[in-house]
Fold this protein.
Amino acid sequence: MKILVTGGTGHVGSEVVKELQKRKADIRLLVKKEDTPVPAGIEKAVGDLLDPVSVEKAMQGVDKLYLLNAVLPDELTQGLIAYDLAKKLKLSHIVYHSVLRVEHFKDVPHFASKLAMENAIREFDVPFTVIRPNYFMQNDASLKDPLTKAGIYSMPLGKVGVSAVDVRDIAEAAAIVLTSDAHMGKSYNVNGPSVISGPKAASIWSELLGKPIHYTGDNMDLFEEQMRTTAPSWSAFDIRMMFEGYLERGFVAGDGDLDTLTKLLGHAPRSYEDFAKETLMQWQAPEMSRAA
């Protein structure tokens, strides 16, 4: 059984690859450039999700597809090209990386793309499983300077909060369903074990850092302006709309979600507190190394 993985060099996809390797899966990784490094023992296919010829070539001899494509203006086109070719070649299983509560965030561009993809996947006869993750805890690993220097937690998670999830739990769930035929036609909401609001996250970091951390994340105009300094304007707006949805509607696990995920993983999902402790240790490691 050969699995084609798209998005396998990114933050989530690379963790999926690691989990598949643990399960001795036969992996082919779709990459854009020939010189992209891939882990030992993994087959490389060079292609672009906007180039159907290269994608079809990459799918030759493949049984299953893990479809994770980046948040881009043409995300839906990329996804549909991959799906249509999987349908044409009669792949035995597609695992699609979507997002939690996608049907409640139709005003968010990349959520709308994922909703359209889910609708297409459910419409036809290719066996599928959908993975629907929450907000990634690892997004907060980018906050080293705001937290340690400015004393602020700036992610706009709002006061309702999100059931933030560790990307390693997402990857483990994806690998489990990819290496089994017991999950066809199912959707899995992948959440963390507790609701993390902006003030709650600030309090967790306050305790870890031993100093007051203030939540400053509800100014969406300022957030979008800051995002535009490191991301294209369309992306800054898209992400702003996502976080506005969090502020207005929350992004919390549904009834039974955690029990279902715990059963799937065989263990409870990782906590935000444990992620924060681990991240702080990683931030401190270079400083300790220099001091030694």
Observations:
- The longest strand covers residues 26-31.
- The chain has eleven helices and nine strands.
- The chain has a mean pLDDT of 95.
